[in-house]
Amino acid sequence: NAKGCYEKILGQLLTALVGGSRFGHLSWWGHGIEAIRKTFAVAWLPQSASTLTRFWGKIKTLPMAEKMGEAGRKFAKTMWQWENIGEDNLNFDSSVLTRYGDQDGARKGYNPKKHGRKSHHPLLAFLGSGYIVNLWNRSGNVSSAHRVVDFFDQTVASLGSAFRIKKVLCDAGFYIFRFMAHLESQNHLYIIAAPLSRILQKRIWRIQDWRRLARGIEIAEFEMECRDGKQTTLHRYVVVRQEIAERPKAPGKQPFLFKELEELKNYRFSIMVTNDRKLPAEDVWREYRTRANDENVFKDLKEGYGFAAFNLDNFWAAEAVMVMNALVFHNLVHYLNRNILNPNQPQKQLKTLRAEHFILPAQLGNSAGDWVLRSGVRGQKFRGRICHVLERIMSIPHRLNCNAVGAATS
User: Fold this and answer.
1) SS3 of 169, please?
2) What is the model's pTM?
3) What's the pLDDT tens digit per position in 29-85?
4) Cβ neighbours for 135, distance < 8 A, ≥ 6 positions apart
5) Cβ-contact 268, 244 below 8 angstroms
6) Cβ distance 117 to 108 under 8 Å?
7) Contact present, 73 and 323 (Cβ < 8 Å)
8) Closest CA to 201 of 277, 265, 249, 143
């Protein structure tokens, strides 16, 4: 007598779309359930939070969670293939999800906003175009680069041999020589931010040939041998310094060794390591700056999709929910955003799309034996935009291979 998974997944998607951030918010869209049933051609939809928690709670082991991860990676691949993305940058980043109970894997570790609180520390892979292509949940007491080599190999395998990785971009948490050596062994170019360690600060202090890029921005580069165990490798570093007086909101850090140096104490510094010997230093910096969009994706996940709030006690169940929110829900809306709602424009986050497109008053009625949804949209301009969006959605040539429900009948 068990219900299928399609309706339960749909129920969670609808909860996220209307602004819910936990399973208990399932009831937020209950007043429109009849219209939703007709729209999605289903006879039943969950109306209790326990329906979803029992469903996800059945995923209790790594193999079961990996099946969900494989399905999520396959769905993500479908999305970016619809856009004919054959090459792109591959970015890696991690996030801290604060936990307030005794969930599996919740440990005390690095937590910049809630010091001393337990957390999970998931690892994500992004394309430069904004699609999330892989996700692993991890305990809160691990480093940003924990198991990143294995994660990288799985991500590359899921992308397929036809996809070309232009560059691998990471923040300073992934400044690990073993990871860089692994990328070089597979002939991948990378740009990784480097932490301002004491050794690098001393090397920056010796730079004399700073080159001006713009008002308050200067750049330089150097090569330095770095030892990892018994192996010594020559790395190329690109350094950018920005004058605080000219650019008070400039990113970067002010190294502690420079605070007393008159010629350096008024700058913020950013440093990157790369194995691309041909790319000019200013282009290395400009290309790395595109990675900043990953922070917007994390913000959208947390504020729009309840990424940190949809949580369960079991570690693998929590990972399965993260995969569904990130690799399925986010990528689906991201495709809609890029191709229908805001093509060739800055991408709007879900909390904005929700108010503009997803929450509209409507009434379900009947006309000559056909079900009709009468939308209460005011204003000719806005009504025209909604009609235009619906027409463009209907003209999408792609279809998902879904056999969860039967063909819709008129």
Assistant:
1) strand
2) 0.91
3) 888 888 888 888 888 999 899 999 999 999 999 999 999 999 999 999 999 999 999
4) 69, 72, 122, 123, 124, 125, 319, 322, 323, 326, 327
5) yes
6) yes
7) no
8) 265
* Cα gap 331→347, rounded to integer Å: 13
- The whole-angstrom separation of Cα 334 and Cα 342 is 10
**Beta-carbon contacts of residue 46 (< 8 Å; ≥ 6 apart):** 3, 7, 8, 11, 26, 52
**Which among 214, 200, 207 is positioned nearest to 273, based on CA atoms?**
200
Contacts of residue 347, defined as CB under 8 A and 6 or more positions apart, other chains included, come to 130, 334, 337, 338
Band (pLDDT 50/70/90 cuts) for residue 256 is: confident
> Cα–Cα distance between 261 and 102 in angstroms, integer?
48
Q: How far is CA 64 from CA 69, 76, 121, 155, in A?
A: 9, 19, 20, 18
The per-residue DSSP string of 288-334 comes to: HHGGGHHHHHHHHHHHHS-TTTS--SSHHHHHHHHHIIIIIIIHHHH
Q: Is the dihedral of CA 257, 262, 265, 270 positive or negative?
A: negative
Return the number of other C-beta atoms located less than 10 Å from residue 378's C-beta. 7
Closest by CA position to 187, among listed 168, 159, 169: 168
Residue 261 tokens, joined: 């140096």
Cα–Cα–Cα angle for 42, 43, 46, rounded to 5 degrees: 85
Residue-level length of the chain: 410
- Return d(Cα 292, Cα 285) in angstroms, integer: 12
DSSP string, 124-160: EEEETTS-EEEEE--BTTS-TTTTHHHHHHHHHHHH-
Q: Determine how many CB atoms are found less than 10 A away from the CB of residue 128.
A: 19
Do 265 and 245 form a contact (C-beta atoms < 8 A)?
no
Assign residue 105 a region: left if phi > 0, alpha if psi is -120 to 50, beta otherwise? left
Backbone dihedral region of 369: left (phi > 0), alpha (psi from -120 to 50 degrees) or beta? left
Tokens read off for 66: 């990996």
The tokens of 306 are what?
A: 């309840």
